[in-house]
User: What shape does this take?
Amino acid sequence: MSEQFEPVIVGFLCNWCSYRAADLAGTARIHYAPNMRPIRVMCSGRIDPQFVLKALREGADGVMIAGCHPGECHYVSGNIKALRRFILLKAMLRQFGVEEARVQLVWASASEGIILAAKVNKMTEEIRALGPLNWQETVLGGNNGYKVAQAALVPEEV
Amino acid sequence: MSEEQKHPEQNERVGVYICHCGTNIANVVDVEDVAEWAGKQPNVEIAREYKFMCSSLGQDLIEEDIREKGLTRVVVSSCSPHMHEKTFRTACERGGLNPFLFEMANIREHDSWITNDKVAATQKAKALTNAAIERVVHHQPLEQLPVEINPNTLVVGGGIAGITAALELANGGHHVYLVEREPSIGGHMAQLDKTFPTLDCSACILTPKMVDAGQHPNITLLTWSEVEKVDGYIGNFTVSVRKKARYINEDHCTGCGICIEKCPFKVIDDVFEVGMGERKVVYRPFPQAVPKFPVIDKENCVYFQRGKCKACQIFCPTEPNSIDFEQEDEILSISVGNIILATGFQLFDTAKIPQYGYGRLPNVFTSLEFERMVNASGPTDGKIVLRDKQTEPKTVAIIHCVGSRDENYHKYCSKICCMYSLKFAHLVHERIPDADVYNCYIDMRTPGKGYEEFYHRLLEEGTHFIRGKVAEVTNAARIPEEKGKLIVQVEDTLIGRQRRIPVDMVLLSPAMEAQPDSKEISQLFKMGCDFDGFFTERHPKLDPVATMTEGIFIAGACQGPKDVPDSVAQGAAASARVAGLINIGTVMMEPVRASINQDDCSGCRICNNMCPYNAIIFHEDRHVSEVITALCQGCGTCVAACPSGIISGAHFTNIQLLSQIEGILWDVRPAKEKVPA
Assistant: This one.
């Protein structure tokens, strides 16, 4: 394993479109960065901004929120609500000093495995360029008495 | 969140099963390592790896462990929950465990199939498995919700797929509402002349079915009607249908056709005759139309536009008179348990490819124009003639793949065009025996019973086959022989040479594409459609007529390009699925539903407007909001929106998801909270 930093991205995928897009990417054997770890929710509208903050605080270097395309939500308009919350959350994260690329909202329909894969790849590269998030230092301004996890060391531990 | 809240279920006994899926997972993920590691996680009673967890032996393993080791929770790391969640839930249930005390981690589609990096894949498998372990301890036993199925069914679209679906259900004794937006059922098949490869007369095989559907006591035919609104869910849909005014009283009209005969005005028929012929202003699209009642075309009717004429009313022989200029659109509300969508297709607009000259060069025709032309009841009485309606062409070029298999338009193969292009070649040979026919194709695709044989028949009939995509159709002659002709410029890839073929007539074989409003239709029925606008099936191989939305099925070309036998098969398949549901009478629904803690609700009403189903009501007296479980679909938007955090989304509760987040980040979490292995 090289010294390359491997970011950990938590993906919140909606059950109907993006989770199935990820399923399809796998079924079609599209190879993409394994850095995104998916969590299934019924709808992107279920994603409480605190989930995103929780993931970042718990050591994720980025969070991907993925839903159905606007107008294609299985629950009529949950993705639009996700978009609204995302815009507010972004404004907050900016004030925290968290780079914009770390939390991204993407649309992928159930047939767009290849698109989802490409977006995961792109996001992984962008965060790799940014380096680890180190929430404790970036956001709390100091290690706050906690030992900061070294994400880059993880693969060697295996 | 306090420590106390975080691990209230320290005493859960979790069984973890890592599936090899043959070599699908085990080739990339070190399954032994993951299982061994999982066995050391808190709450885990036993962790095993097994070749195929979905096999009956794999399921037995779960059942035995529940009984013998007293498991209270089960995690299976294998494929997508969309594949086998149900399988394992049932296994848990057989073992005596509530099926919702189970969680699945997807280490195949989301892990082993997307990378060759064994280290990273194993790490990710541990993360996903751990997320499931940490989540599952917070699971609560849930009961599925039974929903009764209304035995009536709505079929949208009266083409061959919709007619078949409606007839199959009606013959089985179930009531069907068949909605069609044109004045008659029949769809595209009614416009065709012959069907490949048998060369059956299309109308002759279709019209008996149309008549059956029109007369069936179990079918309510709603033509000249469109669905406007769909509410509810499987078993209990309420559908609003706009029955457009025909200006004909259907109770009195005998369908004698005298009004059509007497109407003094004609317009170009853009729909049924695709602009090739004319129709009266009061019209039936074609003689065998079902129902027999005509429609007055308000836009073009002189009475509606200028207040004079009424010829139809004057000559109508019925008593009382059937012509009703005062008629208005009617909104019908119908209750159904299931819906079958068979909304069909449209043809690619060939004018979008200017180099083929459609619309600019008069003797370039589309496939549907040619279908009408060769039809004995069509605008030229079945004679193949140029736009001048008299000259018989001596050379005809047929261009395949117009708008399909083309990066600029549709990438997909439209499936039926090779076959109907061959049919056209045959019809030209039959009607004009000395004509030369050139079929310019990219690849000849003739899979299907009797299809390849039909191609061979055409080879013997003397059709010229040129393998190459046509670059251009032009009337710019370079040599005297080309003068007055259409010149087809094509690279014949089999001889490696550019050719210019002068012809009298060019037929374009356009792609089948989704209806222009398919996106709106999919939203109306709250189901998915793909980028091309075709409706998305639940599973492309194993569930081609169901959709992601329970109770909504699809059939025919609205799902993708399809010929008549495939559409018929899908229509019948969809109706079989619906009949099955009707016979069972009730379905079990996922108990993923929101509920509001009535004691803690502050009555802020933020959630009230969030709900897309209006499932949240506000009690003015108690000043609290409440979710009506029957209406809730479980999206969880209100759960995320509640500022007090007192709305709970069953099976997707905050604590379940937060624990899952912690679990998925087991290897990168700040050291303080790292759970000792």
User: Anything to note?
Assistant: Residues 78-96 of chain A form the longest helix (19 residues). Chain A has one domain: 9-157. The two ends of chain A are 11 Å apart (CA to CA). Chain A touches chain B through 65 residues (CB under 8 Å).
